[in-house]
Amino acid sequence: MFVSVSSAATSVQVGGRCARSSSPEAVGGLGEGSGADLLPVYLMVQEPVLTLKLVFELQRLEAGVGIAAPQLALNLRMFLTIKNMPDNEADLDKLEYQQVLNPEIVGMSTSAKRDFEGCLSVPGYQGIVKRAEEIRVQYQDGEGRKIQETLTDFPARVFQHELDHLNGVMYLDRMENGSLLHNEEFEAMEWQDIQKLLLQGPPKIPPLMVPMSTQTGNSPHHSKGKGGRKNNY
């Protein structure tokens, strides 16, 4: 089942090589009164240097699946993802990237899935994030053509993760409390244990301090969080 997603964002209009927008939503999602409406954004939609810079950074960091312009201090509503991304991360083969400009989610499924995510901006860690399993999206490609498509599973997760970057949101802001693991902890886990932990649901986190009147002995202590696939984007 899908639900519609309303968006106040105004897309940067693409015409020729360069487009201009004074919309506050085109500057990192900043609202009225922030001064963003006074800062026009120039978006090069066929800029090979920018694309090469993003691709080079992906390859240097051995990230693989995607990177957003703000991660490289570029104030553009743009990210790169693997072209024709498979539903399963394990099926990734040849890495060919595509530009995604002015992306929007216009609908999403009511069903959601919990899985591990990592981020190039916070290297070395993984955390569980719950995201819609299926989304309807629209964006412009590197030639300014408007694209509308439905994404599911892994591609849907990557799109949501990268779009969050454009809106100033990190996966840490959406991560389940108590689920953060260092990569070494994650890689030491067996696949069966990871799936079992994912099915158990979010961990129950005890309070940091128990009121003196309720203390009857040692405070409860729970173990570490859960695991999924190792994703960096």
Q: Could you explain how this protein is built, in words?
A:
InterPro entries: Peptide_deformylase. It catalyses: N-terminal N-formyl-L-methionyl-[peptide] + H2O = N-terminal L-methionyl-[peptide] + formate. Residues 211-233 are annotated as: Disordered. Its EC number is 3.5.1.88. Keywords: Hydrolase, Metal-binding, Protein biosynthesis. The structure is a single chain. The protein is α+β, with helices and mostly antiparallel strands and 233 residues long. The protein has a domain at 2-107 and 135-151 and 159-174: Alpha-Beta Complex (Peptide Deformylase). 19% of the residues lie in helices and 29% in strands. The protein is built from 5 helices and 11 strands. The chain has helices spanning 48-60, 153-166, 171-174, 183-187, 191-199, and strands at 2-4, 18-21, 41-44, 66-68, 78-82, 97-109, 112-119, 122-132, 134-140, 146-152, 181-182. Strands 1, 4, 5, 6, 9 and 10 form a 6-stranded antiparallel β-sheet that branches. A hairpin with a 2-residue loop joins strand 7 (112-119) and strand 8 (122-132). The two termini are 27 Å apart.
